[in-house]
Amino acid sequence: MRMRLAICSLLLCLANGDRIAFGHGGVVLEEDLCIINIGYLQAHFKIYLPQERQRQEFCEDIPSTGESLFVMEYLHPGLDEAAIDFRVIRNVTGLGRFAMWEDVAGIADLDEVTVFYHAPAIVPGVYSVIHRFDEPGEFIGIVTAAPGDGGAPYTAVFPFEVGFTGFGVWPLILIAIAVLQLHLWYSGGRLQRPFGWLRGRFGWLRGRFGWLQSRLGWLRPHFGWSHSRLGWLGRWPGRLSPRGFGAVAVLGCAFWFASVTQGNQATDPSETESRTRTRADPSETESRGTSRAGLFEIVSRLPSRAGHFQVTVAPDLEPLAINTIHRWVVDVLTAEGTPVPSAEITIRGGMPAHDHGLPTRPEATRYLGEGRYLIEGMRFHMAGSWEVILGIETDAHSDEVAISLEL
Amino acid sequence: MARAVFAIAAIGLAVTLAGAAWFFLRPAVQPVWTDHELDMMESLWIANLPPLPPDPSNAVADDPLAARFGHRLFFDPRLSGNGEFACSSCHQPERRFTDGRLTGAALGDSERNTPSIVGTAYSPWLYWDGRKDSQWSQALSPLEDPNEQGGNRVALARLVDGDPEYRRAYTELFGILPDLSDADRVPAAAGPIPGTFLETAWNAMDPADREAITRVFVNIGKAIAAYERLLVPGPSRFDRYIEAISRGDALQAGAILNADEATGLRLFMGKARCIECHNGPLLTNNEFHNTGIMSAAGKIPDRGRIDGIRQARDDPFNCLTDFSDDPLKDCAELRFARTGAEVVGALRTPSLRNLQGTAPYSHQGQTPSLERMMLHYDRAPLSMIGHNEAKPLGLSRRERAQLEAFLATLDAPLVTAPQWLSPPAESVALTGNPPTR
Ligand SMILES: [Cu+2]
Q: What is the ipTM of this complex?
């Protein structure tokens, strides 16, 4: 009984495992991230069945018909300006999952086999389309991207199945469980009679294969180590009491589950997405001015990281507050204290602890004379620790200064 | 012997049970606030709501006549293609200017849930995706949207021209109306509504006439905005609580919010991290965030701000156009707006004042109740597009209920005088003797 329970829990855990899909054509699974390659343009590819499987992600094959959402999150900025079209056709190539672009190009009337088409459109950031599959079957997705520079379009072709016809890894799991169970019974002595009967009936087979045994005899010493090292493997279920076995199964299950949930976390786009983010960098600390907001000058003569400049910052919002757009006046002096007239100032920043950037894209818009620059478009949208990094570039030097703010 | 063992076991069991019962059923206690918490609390206090920010793009924003004119327009169903729908059909005052539907509906269906209008004068951006950057330019959209009021600007200009009261108010505010009498020059109905006969008629008109009529259209928007500016939330039970706390009157404070509600407030500012986005006296930063709400059935996940900012930049009525009355045209919010991966699927944080009676929640009404909303934040699932900024919170059922209880304390009547909250009395003349605000 306990044994059954253990097996059931094992099964339940395994049933949770999804994404046992492997790439073909333009879509591949790379380190647990499903990638579509449209020429050199890459995107993170995923399919959802929002109604039935909520947020579960699929890489290509989808287990059932119904509303399917195809999402491509761009990994290459070229896709932001590319005109993308998306087509799904019935897989009439007869090649199943091995259909490739050449095979698709050979189809005389693409429109006839098309079940879904979305005309070319430029969609920045992320591309998504929704389609209802009414019938299960084999399909091919065709994504074409025409780069914004007018170059030749690229195409990705990926065959996929809707409504699995196979059973995935289930048969394997069932067989493994059956073997374990048999082994347990056998070593527990419960199967003496049927085995004895089998031996009697098929004993002659042994004689027939005797020659094999002698031929492969030389292999034995080579595997001696494995026998002595791993021999316990063959015995362990017998040695363990059913209760022990249950415990092991539950533990294994927990371990497996943990690894699966970790795997899911790895698909969190935040980990792969390239985004403007600021990370606390140990080398920044010495040039960082920590200040409490509220002083009119939030930093005064703060040396830049490599020491080429000194920076004074005065916002026109006093005290500095959230949710109000305002300007900064930045004084840039050389290390010796003379004003720097023609520097290029760039602004980035964010909340390192929250892993997000600034809510605006501030710019240095005007030179006010005497090394002073006007920065417009500053805004902070929540309280907490902010970091603003001013990049300063002159003909002679390129340097940065990191300003920490506590709002 | 056996009896002693039994007794010990029984006592042990009883103690454990009692402990568990205490843990799960213990009454909440009134929190003792730290200085940091007090600071945060004061930042949410409605007493710290600044005066209405000026709207330099709208010269009549604070004109009482414009507000009265706008009040009429807001409730007037003649401002629609079929004479049946006014702004107030969807923004119903008795429902805190929402409509109780999943997504708005008038002549057709809107794409999103109808938000409240209260307090929008404080927001640099309008709509869930911020595709409009002023109240007046926002008001122009539903008027010509075939799914909403489905009118057109020529017909609207004719309506103002033909109604003696409107005509008088308009001329007093904006100067004389263009001459619309020549039917050859100005058809009965026309407007740049893509793919319609109205567009054909519009394109056939003289550019100068089109310009003049578009001005009238814009001025209608500006009058409506002057009215909308008056809709501001009032002090709630929560605000009275802060007032008592800041006076140091813990006893009275305890009578205003019960322990569960006050604990909900503490969670809101602390463990649940709501205050990161729902900050300031209106409990919104009016910024765009991806919170991973599940898309509505049959719809692709809302792209939100990534499209909203593009539309705002291309909007013929945005802050940088000639239709703005601001000679300086600073337009910093528009000029320095961000785009990129962080705003994929990001929607504008709504105010949390007055949530009772505005269900369903979320941008497409996907969240039927606040209870479900709290569950969503607790789990913070991955977004289908973009990246959910909220993180799982590990709240107990009880803590979720406390958060919900706290949200209910933010409900209060508007400070706006009651006459603005119902259809204007036709008998009161628009111009002349102004009623008091
Ligand atoms: Cu933050």
A: 0.91
